[in-house]
Amino acid sequence: MAYLEITLQVAPSDRVTAAGVYEKYKQPFLSTVPGATSKELLVRDDDVQVLHGFTTVADANAYLSSSLFTDDVVTALSPMLQAAPEVRVYDAA
Q1: What is the largest CA-CA distance in the chain?
Q2: Are 12 and 84 in contact (CB under 8 A)?
Q3: Mean pLDDT score of the chain, rounded to an integer?
Q4: Cα–Cα distance between 81 and 93 in angstroms, integer?
Q5: Which residue, 1, 4, 24, 52, has most beta carbons within 10 Å?
Q6: Is the pTM higher than 0.85?
Q7: Those residues with Cβ within 8 angstroms of residue 41's Cβ, 6 or more apart along the chain or in another chain
Q8: What is the spatial distance between Cα 30 and Cα 7, in angstroms, rounded to a whole number?
Q9: Which domains does the chain show, CATH number per domain?
Q10: CB 53 within 8 A of CB 1
Q11: Closest Cα partner for 29 from 40, 19, 18?
């Protein structure tokens, strides 16, 4: 098991829109990304995190260069980001 954690600096006024991006791409992520097992949205006072579950670390890293991520998700979120996303991959072996 592996996790991809992406922390996003999004203004409170843009969080509903950011959550909409999460909802729009959750099912395509789960049904088309190799090794994808889960996706959760965590809204905190300071930021928004998306926690992705994968079968392996290699699957998590591959997603970061997939067209779903780079062309769709990143493009949709970019106007709302106040800073570069913080991306971490964890091996939960």
Answers
A1: 38
A2: no
A3: 95
A4: 32
A5: 52
A6: yes
A7: 19, 22, 48, 49, 50
A8: 19
A9: 2-91 (3.30.70.100)
A10: yes
A11: 40
